[in-house]
Design a protein that fits this description.
Elements: H1 17-38, H2 45-51, H3 56-62, H4 74-86, H5 94-110, H6 113-125, H7 127-154, H8 160-184, H9 191-205, H10 231-247
């Protein structure tokens, strides 16, 4: 006589790094699917936890809020970027290193296309999630700028702070352009090839500093661009603004 089927046991919280990552991913998938199905505001933490097969307390071991569940690996990626910068060869072009660092963010999105495309759909419609995404992009850009500024300061560049901030913005713009185009396409195309081309454009636009430029303290460089401007126009205009500052 066959026994009646029993419900699958609820998974226990991960005890290994791999187990924790799997459970965190399961919570993220559950959250995104529920948000898309019934709306962000209408979905509770209890429903997310239940859909992932765990309890409420387990959810809060991994995330502070349901909003955090959408961006599960942000801090880890930041740490990976910082480790890459800390171990980078000082003789390597710092702009190339910055591009390699932000490529880790792209790798994170490309590793799970289905979740990434769904997350993108959510951030386009839920203001609080969009704001959180913008804040995370700002954090990445600050880390890029900090690394670049340090490299330029070590070679005596008087424009180290300005140059670091401007080039970090260009690197981030190149990455965001490629990533968003890939997300809008539903995850189609070769984003790595597109990123390589975009980063090459940035590296070529910002040759190593000569160290002879002068900048008055507190000076600000402004480049006015259309929001629809193509990536090459963005990079060229930023670079032109930086060169004007050096010539003054």
């Amino acid at each position: 006589m066959l026994e009646e089927s029993q419900p699958a046991p609820r998974p226990r919280a991960g005890r290994t790094m791999a187990g924790r990552r799997r459970l965190r991913h399961a919570l993220t998938v559950a959250a995104i699917d529920l948000f898309l199905k019934q709306g962000y505001d209408a979905t509770t933490v209890d429903e997310i936890a239940s859909a992932a097969g765990v309890g409420r307390r387990t959810f809060f071991r991994y995330f502070r809020s349901k909003e955090d569940a959408i961006f599960p690996n942000h801090e880890e990626v930041l740490q990976d970027i910082e480790r890459l910068f800390a171990g980078a060869d000082e003789t390597r072009n710092p702009v190339e290193v910055a591009c390699a660092g932000v490529s880790l963010v792209l790798d994170f999105y490309l590793a799970d296309p289905d979740v990434s495309v769904k997350r993108y759909a959510l951030t386009r419609t839920v203001r609080s999630l969009r704001d959180k995404e913008v804040a995370s992009v700002d954090q990445y850009q600050r880390v890029l700028a900090g690394y670049l500024r340090g490299r330029f300061e070590r070679v005596g560049d008087p424009l180290a702070d300005l140059r670091g901030s401007v080039i970090a913005a260009a690197v981030a713009a190149a990455h965001n352009h490629v990533l968003r185009r890939w997300l809008r396409s539903g995850g189609a195309g070769d984003a790595h090839a597109d990123a390589e081309q975009a980063f090459r454009l940035v590296v070529e636009a910002f040759p190593p500093a000569g160290g002879t430029a002068r900048q008055d303290a507190g000076e600000t460089v402004v480049a006015v661009l259309r929001s629809s401007a193509a990536l090459p126009d963005v990079v060229n205009e930023i670079n032109a603004a930086l060169r004007r500052a050096e010539a003054e």
